[in-house]
Structures are given as structure tokens and as C-alpha cells.
Specification:
CATH superfamily: Hydantoin permease
Number of strands: 0
Largest sheet: none
Helix content: over 70%
CATH topology: Hydantoin permease
Number of helices: 20
Oligomer: single chain
Length: about 475
């Protein structure tokens, strides 16, 4: 209709994804990260196996997906960086009431629609600022952890894990994190690769990367998944993953599963918003985000299907391995199995692929802001944001060795960043985006952008307005406490 022509004709200055499939690859890469393959299995192990998985899946559908759709909607409608997109929608919604005009005139009006200046300051742009800052802060320590995966690819390929025992495995890991210069090398290399990809632009860098990395990630996952079917512990692993023990469901397990669902989709940091800005108006937001949510959940569950049969085959305890499951416990199993050198190399290569696709989405929102706000070139913007992020990462490196005893609120630098971003900034950002889309943006604008059947839109809108905010608030309170 005439009232929406202006918004639909707008384009991102950075270009668009060449196809719906490429957006799905990119958004899946953003969502799939170390959290799916590293954190999800040990969270499952610590929270009762199948019971946790069941609540996780329900939470993805009822909490995470509705907010994810809202975030992509904001980006696609605004066609700019997160700060500017929120500003644009806020001004657009406050300038007139589209629904009131439609109801009163019941026809296409020829009256000129008045929008506020999209550069006018609104408080909602602070949500965009918070998301971009969270992305940079997360990448600063995420890059250090991703550096571990690069180091472990070399270790696995050179046979370091062959015949290794628990004590030796712990020693390998401790030697790595105790060496700040080695950590700095891997951190710098990972940041250099990330910045190189992002500096090449949407089609020259982001698209080319995800075209290779995402299919490669799924091929490795499926290959490892086929292999574990031959292990003696395969059936026990499946039973642990998919047969819920309802006695294990406690308030803590429920909140942990809800939190994992929310964080695994990369909600609240602006990544999905900026990727949405590059999405063609011809693509269905609901369709592509649902596919991405399914792919992300599939990766997390398949990671568990791969890891738990290995754990049970080699008589390891799934509930006590914790965060060390990937870097200290699994190398023992890889070292004992036939073909373990190749399998462990593929596994840590898989982790690297997941890490790099998430990393480029973490830094892209801030870079797009620099380009749009200050008219910097993409290369200049990448260098500025990349160097700042790299420098912050040094604090995380020192947290594992020389600076381990330097603490604030009883947390070292790494723990402080991790806690502040994952337990405060991201849930708060997701909550505010749900409120913004559900209560601030005019419903006619949302309907026009999503183009859903009335009953589907009504169901999603109720989830966004009532269920998701309550659930995210509980996650926020639980994490904060």
C-alpha cells in the first residue's frame, strides 16, 4: 500500500545477500558457535540429559524464536546499523498512527504521510548501542577461546593426543593457557582472519566465507555423527540425550535450558539485526529465521549425539566433566580410539568453523555503524574496531595466567566480561527488543513487513508481548542472582 512504499524502497548501503539461502547460511553461522558444540553438551550433562534437552527445544520455539524474528524484522525494516534501525523505527512509529488511519478511512489515503527525521535522537537507539558493545566485548574473549581451538587442531593433527591419559590431557591444556605469548599469537591470528573476512564486504567477504564454512561445518558434523554410530556407547548416549528423566526437572534446570536456548541463537547483540538489514524484501523473515533456529538447534543436539556416545564408550562421567569436556576430557577418548588422530583434527576444525562464522557476525554491527555514521571506508572501520577488540582480548589472556589473581567483585577480567555480557547485556537487550517490537512499533508496520496469515501473526505477537518478556526476565534475574 502507498503508506509503506517509502520503507520498502529503502536499501542498505552495504548491499544485500545474493539469495535467501545465503542469509540462512550467514544467520546460521552467527547463531552456531562454540556455545552449541562446547557449552550445550556440558550444560546437558550437568542438568539431567534428556530433561534439559526437552525444555531447551520448547524454549527455542516459544521464547527464542519469537524474539529472533523481531530482531531480524528491526534490521530488515531499518536497513541500517542497529542504532540507526532502532532510531528509524522508533521515529516512524511515533510520527503517526497507521492503524487509526486505516480504520477511519477504510481506503488507500492520498494524504502525505509525515515521518520524523530518522536522525532524531530516541532512547531506543541505546538498545542498539548496547548490542554492538556486547558483540565487541564478547568477541574480545571469544577470540581467545577460539584460539584454543586453532591450537588444538595442530595438536590433534600432530598426534599429541594419541594414548594420552587424564593427567597428561590436563597438562597440555594448562600449558597452553599458562603461556600468554602463545595465547596472544592464536588470539591475534584468529582476529586477523575475522577482520580480513569482514573487510571484504557483504558479498566479497561474508558471503564467500559462509558459502564454504557452513557446508563444511555440517559435513564434518554429519561425518562424525555417522562414525559414533559404530561405538559401543552409542545407544547409551542416545538414551541419555533423548529419554528425559522427569525427576531431574527442577526450577534451576528449567531456567538453565531457557537461558541456553536464548543465548544459542545469538539474540540481543545486534548480529541478527545487521544481517537482517542485508536481507532482500522478497524473502520471508519468518521462514528464514525458523530455518535458522532449526539448524542451530540441530547442530547443538547433533553435537551432543556425537559427544555423549564417546563419553559413555570410554566410561567418562557426563555430569562432572563440565566446561573442560571439550579441551580436557574428549582428547583422552580421541587418543584411545582407532582413527582418533583424524577424528580429533576434524572435531577441532569443526569448532574453528563454528567460531569464525560467529566472530564475523559479532564485529559486523560495529563496523557497519562506523561506515554509516562517520563515512569511514570498510577497511578503516574494520581496522579501528578490530584493533580495539584485539586489545581488549589481552585482558582475557592475562586472566588465565599473570593476571589470574586480579579480581573485581571476585571475578577476573575474563569472568567479569563473560558475566556482564551473557547474564546482563544480552538478556536485557533481548527483553527490550521484544518490548520495542511488541509495544512501541505500530502493529501495521510489523504486519506489513512479516506478511503472515492473521492467526499465525496473532500467535507470534502474543508470544512476543507476553510469554517471551516474562521468560527472559526470569533468565535475567536468575543469571544476575
Amino acid at each position: 500500500m502507498e503508506k509503506n512504499i517509502k520503507a520498502n524502497m529503502r536499501k542498505s548501503i552495504h548491499g544485500e545477500w545474493s539469495s535467501k539461502l545465503i542469509f540462512i547460511f550467514a544467520a546460521t553461522g552467527s547463531a552456531v558457535g562454540l556455545g552449541n558444540i562446547w557449552k550445550f553438551p556440558w550444560m546437558t550433562g550437568e542438568n539431567g540429559g534428556g530433561a534439559f534437552v526437552l525444555i531447551y527445544i520448547v524454549s527455542v520455539l516459544l521464547i527464542a524464536l519469537p524474539i529472533m524474528i523481531a530482531e531480524v524484522f528491526i534490521g530488515r525494516h531499518g536497513k541500517q546499523n542497529p542504532v540507526a534501525s532502532l532510531n528509524y523505527l522508533s521515529n516512524e512509529s511515533s510520527s503517526f498512527d497507521i492503524t487509526e488511519i486505516d480504520n477511519r478511512l477504510n481506503r488507500v489515503t492520498t494524504r502525505k504521510q509525515k515521518y520524523s527525521n530518522s536522525d532524531d535522537y530516541t532512547n531506543w537507539q541505546l538498545v542498539g548501542w548496547m548490542g554492538m558493545l556486547a558483540g565487541v566485548l564478547i568477541l574480545s574473549f571469544y577470540s581467545v577461546i577460539a584460539g584454543w581451538t586453532m591450537s588444538y587442531i595442530i595438536k590433534a593433527g600432530s598426534g599429541v593426543f594419541t594414548g594420552i591419559d587424564l593427567e597428561s590431557s590436563k597438562q597440555v591444556f594448562n600449558n597452553l593457557v599458562a603461556d600468554p605469548y602463545l595465547l596472544l599469537f592464536w588470539h591475534s591470528l584468529f582476529m586477523l582472519l575475522t577482520c580480513y573476512i569482514v573487510s571484504m564486504g557483504v558479498k566479497g567477504g561474508l558471503e564467500k566465507a559462509v558459502k564454504i564454512l557452513i557446508p563444511g561445518l555440517f559435513l564434518i558434523l554429519i561425518g562424525l555423527g555417522i562414525y559414533v554410530t559404530t561405538l559401543p556407547g552409542f545407544v547409551d548416549g542416545l538414551h541419555y540425550m533423548f529419554v528425559p528423566d522427569m525427576d531431574k526437572i527442577t526450577p534451576d534446570v528449567i531456567l538453565s535450558a531457557m537461558g541456553m536456548a536464548f543465548f544459542s541463537l545469538s539474540i540481543g547483540m545486534g548480529s541478527l539485526m545487521i544481517y537482517g538489514a542485508y536481507l532482500s524484501d522478497k524473502s520471508s523473515i519468518t521462514e528464514v529465521t525458523t530455518i535458522v533456529a532449526f539448524a542451530d538447534t540441530f547442530v547443538a543436539i547433533l553435537a551432543g549425539v556425537i559427544i555423549f556416545p564417546i563419553v559413555f564408550t570410554y566410561n567418562l562421567d557426563p555430569s562432572s566433566a563440565g566446561p573442560g569436556l571439550i579441551f580436557q576430557t574428549l582428547p583422552i577418548a580421541f587418543g584411545a580410539m582407532t582413527g582418533g588422530q583424524l577424528l580429533s583434527t576434524l572435531f577441532f576444525l569443526l569448532l574453528f568453523f563454528a567460531a569464525i562464522t560467529s566472530a564475523i557476525s559479532l564485529i559486523e554491527p560495529a563496523i557497519s555503524y562506523m561506515i554509516e555514521k562517520y563515512s569511514k571506508s570498510r577497511l578503516e572501520s574494520t581496522v579501528i574496531i578490530g584493533l580495539f577488540t584485539w586489545f581488549l582480548g589481552i585482558g582475557t589472556i592475562l586472566s588465565f595466567n599473570y593476571g589470574a589473581d586480579i579480581k573485581f567483585l571476585n571475578l577476573n577480567f575474563f569472568d567479569l566480561l563473560d558475566t556482564f555480557t551473557s547474564k546482563i547485556m544480552l538478556p536485557l537487550g533481548g527483553l527490550l527488543m521484544a518490548i520495542f517490537t511488541g509495544y512501541i512499533v505500530k502493529v501495521a508496520i510489523v504486519k506489513n513487513e512479516l506478511k503472515l496469515k492473521d492467526f499465525i501473526f496473532s500467535f507470534w505477537y502474543k508470544l512476543l508481548r507476553y510469554i517471551a518478556p516474562v521468560a527472559v526476565t526470569l533468565i535475567f534475574i536468575n543469571g544476575f542472582i
